[in-house]
Amino acid sequence: MNIREQIEQDDERLLSPYASLSSHTRGRQEKQDLDEVRTEYMRDRDRIVHCKAFRRLKDKTQVFLDPEGDHYRTRLTHTLEVSQIARTIGRALRLNNDLIEAIALGHDLGHTPYGHAGERTLNAIMPGGFRHYEQSLRVVDRLENGGKGLNLTWEVRDGIINHQLETTPATLEGRVVRIADKIAYIHHDMDDAQRAGIISEDDIPITLRMTLGYTSKERLNTLVLDVIRSSEGKNDILQSDTIHDAMMLFRKLMFADVYMNPVAKAEEVKVNRMIRCLYDYYTKNPEEMPAEYVRMIRKGETPERVAGDYISGMTDAYCVRCFRKIYEPRSWDVF
């Protein structure tokens, strides 16, 4: 018996009857030999961590565009916080934390530069629209590994595409990541908003603070514990009605006072114009994109689809560099 088989046996013995066992995975799109040490979900997690799209998350905006300060969240730190929260819940419920971690680390790989501002722009101009969760699946299926994709298991791919509130992942592990994503951004976006000085604890209605907590730390603890207590021994991931309603009210407050706040949105007009200009240029001049994207067009992808792939994969800084390279006169380099 090798190490992987020992781990699989331990999982069968120790995990919840509702957990997803890697030995029972629905498999990969292309069959591969099993690893001697790692389970299938462990391999997926490692493939995501080592892919280029994951590394680029460190230079992609979460909420605040071009903030002045080193402690604002990026898309990478958001991803890590989602993973941490989800693994805490998963451990308490005896679910498969390797699957949870793989889904959590991969759920935002398709996010655009400049956060949801970039996503809204691409959604408005691309034929068929643009949704980051669909792009995340496209990244792992089609774009990574020189166009071969990462060949992830069905369960990880299902968790990635279904991490938004409107759909339901097939596994409990995917559902844990879905709720952890919401808990994470409500927690850290409020923390960042307070750091930016656009909201304070006193702006949060007292009824919400009484229910969820009087600090970001207390609210995070309340939300996590409620999911654990509401889901124990059940074949679903749940919240109590009281905490769920309070969380949704808190989320509504965040949209009104933070996400739509002029301070948070101050640079969005520039982002919109920049991405529109890049999209227009690359769809008309697809040969100016890197060779791997040009090859995709030669294999039948449309310039519009591939330009969306290229732009959505950019970091914030690289997006600006591409814009300047195309639209600023070279003579300006002397200034």
Distance between the termini: 67 Å
> Main beta sheet: strand number and arrangement?
none
* Radius of gyration over C-alpha positions, nearest whole angstrom: 21 Å
**Total strands:** 0
Give an overview of the whole structure.
This protein has 335 residues and is mainly alpha-helical. The chain is 60% helix and 0% strand. It has 16 helices and no strands. α4 (75-92) runs antiparallel to α5, α5 packs across α9 and α9 packs across α12. The longest helix is centred in the middle third of the chain and has 25 residues, at 172-196. It is flat and about 60 Å long.
Layout of helices and strands:
Layout: H1 3-14, H2 40-49, H3 52-56, H4 75-92, H5 97-106, H6 115-125, H7 132-143, H8 154-161, H9 172-196, H10 206-212, H11 216-231, H12 241-259, H13 268-284, H14 291-298, H15 303-312, H16 316-327
Brief characterization of the structure:
With 335 residues, the chain is mainly α.
List its salient traits.
mainly alpha, 0% strand, 60% helix, flat
